[in-house]
Every structure is written in C-alpha cells, then in structure tokens.
Specification:
The chain has 86 residues and is α+β, with helices and mostly antiparallel strands. The protein contains 2 helices and 5 strands, in the order E-E-E-E-H-E-H. The protein has a domain of 60 residues. Helix content is 14%, strand content 31%. Strand 2 and strand 3 form a beta hairpin. It is globular.
C-alpha cells in the first residue's frame, strides 16, 4: 500500500513519442493498482480502472472534473460554452 496526496504521481504510461505521469485524483492510500492495462496512454482511459484508493479526504470528490469538462479538454475544437469544471 502506498500513501498519496492529491496530484502526486503514482505511475506513468507511454505512447508513441510521449510519456506522462498518472496523477492521483484524490488523497488517500492506494490499495491496488490495475496491472492488466497496456502501458499506453489510451488504455488508461479505455481499459477500466487504474487504482483503488481508500480516501483520506472525501471532500476532494467534489473537486473532480465533470465528464463534460473532460470532453471539452479533449476536443480539438469546441463550438459550445465551456462546461462546468466541477
């Protein structure tokens, strides 16, 4: 088990010419990491969960981005208003 604070890196993935850290979205204890996903960036979004984290500060859940905000961040062009972040 590994203790982590929100925004601490807990691993990394690579794809093509890019490497990126996996960032802890909430503070707590990392109970388990999913070792079954491929080590490429797209797999972290498409092949299920990344980590099981026992929360130490449940209020941080209110600061996770909304699915609409993630779509906005990923869109090469966006024609509508900026969606709510939280």
């Amino acid at each position: 088990m590994l203790s982590a604070t929100r925004e601490d890196p807990y691993g990394s993935v690579s794809g093509g010419k890019m490497n990126t850290d996996l960032i802890t979205p909430v503070s707590g204890t990392i109970i388990e990491l999913n070792g079954n996903y491929d080590k490429d960036i797209s797999a972290t979004y498409t092949k299920g969960w990344q980590a099981i984290i026992r929360l130490s500060n449940p209020d941080e859940l209110n600061r996770l981005y909304t699915p609409q905000y993630y779509a906005y961040l990923e869109a090469p062009t966006w024609s509508g208003p900026v969606p709510p972040m939280y």
